[in-house]
Structure prediction request, 240 residues.
Amino acid sequence: MSRLLFVILALALSTIVEARGDAATGQKKAAQVCAACHGPDGNKPSAPDQPILAGQYYDYLVRALGDYKNGRRNNAIMKGFAGQLSKQDIEDLAAWFSSQEKTSLHDQR
Amino acid sequence: MKRLLFLLIGAALAASAVAQDKKPAKKAAAPQAEKAADKAPEKLAAASPEIPTENFHAQCIGCHGIPGYKTAFPEVYHVPKIAGQQPGYIIAALKAYKSGERSHPSMRGIAASLNEGQMKALAEYYGAPAK
Prediction:
C-alpha cells in the first residue's frame, strides 16, 4: 500500500517538474507574434540587438516573457508583445523555441 | 536690520555670479570629458595590461559556462546560454543591467563594473562562432 502511494506521489511530482508548454501550439503562436523580429524558429533576429531564441533554456524563456509582461523587465517593444500573452501562450512559445536544435547558442564557455 | 538685509542680498548676488561663471566652464569641459570617456574603454579593452582581454570572460564562466547551471533559490531557472548569441544583444543586455532596466542582482553588479569597451570585448568573445 505504501509502495503504491509512493508511486502515485512520484508520478504527481514528475508531472509538476515536467509541466511544459506545447511546442506545436507555440510554433503557431510564434508565427503570429514573434517571427517578424526573431524569425519563425527564433534563429533569425531582424536586428543585431535582438536575441537568438532558438535553443535557449525553456525556463529562462518563460521567465523572460513573464518579466516583460509584468514590467520587471522594462522594454517598450517586448512589453507590448508579452502583455498580450497568457501564461499558457508563454509556456507554449518557450517550448517551441527551446526545442529548436538548429541554433548557434550553447553554454560551453 | 538693514545691514543684515544688505548682507543677504549681497550674498545672493555673489552666489548667482559664481553660478553664472561656472556654467560656461561646464559646457566647455563636457565635450572633452565625453571624448575622453569614448576613447578610454577601447584602450582598456584592447591594450591595458591590467585587463587581459583573452581572459576577460572569466567572470562569466562560473554561471554561463556550466551546461545546465541554474540560478539560486527562491527563483530557480536555467542561467541563459550566451555563447553564440548576437553580440549586439549581449551589449544591449549588459547596458540594461547597468542602467537598472534589467534587475538581476548578480548581473547588475557585474555590468555596473564594465565600461563600454569591456562590454564590446565580451560581446565579441561570446558572439563568435563556436570553435
